Amino acid sequence: MGLLDGKIVLVNGGSQGVGAAIARAAVREGATVAVTGRRPEPGEALVAELAAAGGTALYVRADLSDAEQARSSVAEVVAAYGRIDCLVNSAGLTSRGTLLDTTPELFDEHIAINLKGPFFAMQAAVADMVARKEPGTIVNIITSSAHGGQPFLAPYVAAKAGLIGLTRNAAHAHRWDRVRINGLNIGWTATEGEDATQRAFHGAGDGWREAAATRLPMGKLGQPDEIADFVVFLLSERSGVVTGSVIDWDQNVLGGLD
């Protein structure tokens, strides 16, 4: 449909998982895409894949836990293409910790990647949009766990709940600049990162996805490509005037009890 024809899109944390799916969907919809990641191998492989499919893509190596690298990821896109139209903050840390066993170091890691990185990437992107007096769109990938979450996700929940507040604050602050900022609270999703997390922290083996699917209402985990289609819609003009919305993209209903 060409929902993003001619747009310059940066997907932070875009080298794998949900971020990579968003990059693929954005290219299919006509965007020029840049993706960031700490490891060059998956980032460069994705860019090569997108180029082979006829898209235009750029890999930017960045550790988004560093505020300067988060800002420079935007600066590199602006240097390469002259502007940034859309930003997706998809990078995330999901390592486990409870209120009682989380160390200050683990807490700081979650804040750095799940909150500080998006903050300063948004700062740089909005600054470019405002300086050019042009509209733009931002989507933050958050989590349904930000509503409370499991006991073993204490620092993750704290950081992501902060990202919900930031999303709404920034959307309100820049609505007159025509910069629309929304968030997506995704649920349990089938990604490479989730596979590694389940194996590392929960002793999961082969077949855990199939077993998990039987316990979910829709009979499957969330799918990255489906999330990506929704993100593209939010980035595009087809989502109209919507800003400051944080949407629960999940199969469990907040407040629903059996």
Summarize the structure in words.
The chain has 258 residues and is an alpha/beta fold. Helix content is 46%, strand content 15%. The protein is built from eight helices and seven strands, in the order βαβαβαβαβαβαααβ. The chain has a seven-stranded parallel β-sheet, sandwiched between helices.
List the helices and strands and how they pair.
Elements: E1 8-12, H1 17-28, E2 32-37, H2 40-52, E3 57-61, H3 67-81, E4 86-89, H4 104-132, E5 136-141, H5 154-173, E6 179-186, H6 192-202, H7 208-213, H8 224-235, E7 246-249
Parallel strand pairs: 1-2, 1-4, 2-3, 4-5, 5-6, 6-7
Helix pairs in contact: 1-8, 3-4, 4-5
How would you describe this structure in keywords?
8 helices; 258 residues; alpha/beta; 46% helix; 7-stranded parallel beta sheet; globular
Entry summary:
Helix content is 46%, strand content 15%.
| Global Rg | 18 Å
Low-confidence parts lasting 5 or more residues at pLDDT below 50? none
The largest sheet is: 7 strands, parallel
Estimate the strand proportion: 5-15%
For the termini, the CA-CA separation is 41 Å
